[in-house]
Amino acid sequence: MSERSTAGPAPPAHASLGDSLATGWDDPDGALPPPDWGRPRGPRRLATVWAFALFLVALAMGNAWLSDRLTGEAFLAWATVFTAISLQALPFLVFGIALSAALTAFVPASFYQRVMPRNPAAAVPVAGAAGMVLPGCECASVPVASGLIKRGVAPAAALTFLLAAPAINPVVLAATAVAFAGQPEMVVGRLLASFGAAVVVGWIWARLGRTDWLRPPRTHHDPDAPKWQVFRESMLHDLMHAGGFLVVGAIAAATVNVIVPREWVAAVADMPVVSALVLALFAVVLSVCSEADAFVAVSLTEFSPTAKLAFLVVGPMVDLKLIALQGGTFGWAFVRRFVPLTLGVALVFSFAIGGLLL
């Protein structure tokens, strides 16, 4: 009679290598496991091989394309711009995320309901003003707006807060003042254009918005969790996401400054309307956190102040990560209506305020 292993019961046929280390291999004949045991089979294995192959091809193509462009002085210039943007923006990013996490953890959502008028038209400007004193980035504004709607605040007011808070809160305005040192008109222009756009979008939504365009908000956190745990988890989540987008934005801005031919930039920058539209699209794609976007905007030296203002106004209201958050929270029927409305109003106010002040 053969001896059985004492390592434990035999893993199932689909067990992974990690499962084998935890439970051992048990065979009545003492045989070794088959050579392919624990390895992914079928489509998963094939997809992994192809993904790795495509990754290697992308690396090779990127190296071939960048080798002639990011060499010597060009690479040093790229590294300088990237480092300057990242180091200047990081303190504001961390401070803003910490304040946002504190508001999420320690300020009950019912507080916002008590200070909001019940008339939606009157609640909209109040919500916009609340965004001026309650700091928060785009990542935090969506769940806060969802919580306000859940507790009975008019959707138009909650959406106004969603747009205003990441655009004109004190941390963002302070970061803008540091980035555009000696240019107070840029800070004032950002405040007026962002506040005006948020309020007008809120009023339009109060007049034309429908309840069935908004998916009922869902609870993502344990309501019984300790407040300090909520604070820690919120800060770590926002820091990981916003920090990554900051790095991506700094890389993109540095790359644009070094790789894009200056004659191309000059050709676009000399056309006021086109340059503002280009930077607005740039803001949507980059998805830089609002506490850091001013440092990216100031590095785009070839563009006009109005184009930079469009970048600062559009970015905190419409970007890719914000669209994804809104779609996951409120549904894509909402996104299809809200995003084009917000983008159009933000551009109108950017051109209007930029033409008057800058």
From TrEMBL:
Belongs to the UPF0718 family. It comes from Streptomonospora nanhaiensis. It is found in: Cell membrane. Its main location: membrane. InterPro entries: DUF318, UPF0718. This is Permease. It is a multi-pass membrane protein. It comes from the Bacteria. The chain crosses the membrane at residues 46-66, 78-107, 156-181, 187-206, 239-260, 272-297, 309-332, 338-357. Residues 1-20 are annotated as: Disordered.
